[in-house]
Specification:
Number of domains: 1
Strand order of the largest sheet: 2-1-3-4-12-11-10-7
CATH superfamily: Class I glutamine amidotransferase (GATase) domain
Structural class: alpha/beta
Number of helices: 6
CATH class: Alpha Beta
Radius of gyration: 15 Å
Distance between the termini: 23 Å
CATH architecture: 3-Layer(aba) Sandwich
Number of strands: 12
Shape: globular
CATH topology: Rossmann fold
Helix content: 25-40%
Order of helices and strands: EHEHEHHEHEEEEEEEEH
């Protein structure tokens, strides 16, 4: 069973639907015991960093996420969920993130003349043998919707990048933590393969 954390940050049903298509049972919940009983956990999210952290704390899901991480249970952050794994974001100055990983979340630069937010399909440059990318070809396209992007402090945890004027750390993995800035649940067959790979991980440790 995969638990999808519900903290009123949206994007829950599309994740649930994609998992159902793969034959993976899931539950949308903010029940601590249900989340901790799950085999794997997904933290989705769309919207503003500060609002999301406020909602996580309101439902005490921030504490639950830390418990999941400490249990070495596979944990996947999607879109805003990836950003929340880190220490903070330029979007919400002074608001602390979950602090599970080190890095900065910054706004796209206006100097490239590109539309912000970045909405659409971009190709991935794969690296560092990401477990989520088994069977996925380098250069595969996935779907993004974001105005802020990750600069991870640890280069070896970056498993995929993309370029939208700026170089985006599009996916990271460290131990039991997995995260994608893009939306695998909206990324056609490539995204479904990523979710399938996550569902088939048997533990949170790197091989």
């Amino acid at each position: 069973m995969i638990a999808i954390i519900d903290y009123d940050a949206g994007n829950l049903k599309s994740v649930e639907k994609a998992l159902a298509f793969l034959g993976q049972p899931s539950v949308i919940t903010r029940d601590r015991n249900e989340i901790l009983r799950a085999d794997k956990v997904i933290l989705p999210g769309v919207g503003a960093f500060g609002d999301a952290m406020e909602q996580l704390r309101k439902y005490e899901m921030d504490k639950v996420v830390h418990e999941v991480a400490e249990m070495k249970k596979p944990l996947l952050g999607i879109c805003l969920g990836l950003q929340l794994f880190f220490e903070g974001s330029e979007e919400s100055s002074g608001v602390e993130g979950l602090g599970l990983l080190k890095g900065s979340v910054v706004r796209f630069s206006d100097e490239h003349g590109l539309k912000i937010p970045h909405i659409g399909w971009n190709s991935l440059e794969l690296m560092n043998d990401g477990r989520l990318y088994k069977g996925i070809a380098n250069g595969s396209y996935v779907y993004f919707v974001h105005s802020y992007y990750l600069k991870a402090a640890e280069e070896q945890i970056v498993k995929a990048t993309t370029t939208y004027g700026d170089l985006v750390h599009a996916s990271v993995e460290k131990g039991n933590l997995f995260a994608c800035q893009f939306h695998p649940e909206k990324s056609s067959s490539v995204g479904l393969t990523i979710l399938k790979n996550f569902a088939e991980i048997t533990d949170g440790e790197e091989k």
